[in-house]
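Let us work through a complete example step by step.
Step 1: write down the sequence.
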Amino acid sequence: MSRKLGKTQAAFLEAMLQHYGSWHANCGWYWGSSSATRRLCESLEKRGLLRSEDIKARRDVIQLWRVIDQDAARKEIARAKGNPS
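Step 2: predict the structure and record it as tokens.
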């Protein structure tokens, strides 16, 4: 079994689920700062909970992170909080 999520990772993932399960730098919300949010996304991507993709927005290409499996994400959040799943 993998390590539990940290408190900040779990809280961020929970917030991300409340924001339709995705985040990009121009979406209007972030966790502390844009760079802190990006680091959280990268750490959750390494754990297999998020995936990253580049999307074209007008003339720019932006990086978008999405929750891969919302049920798995909720289980990891509950596990981090010490709640049985």
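Step 3: interpret the result. Residues 34-46 form the longest helix (13 residues).
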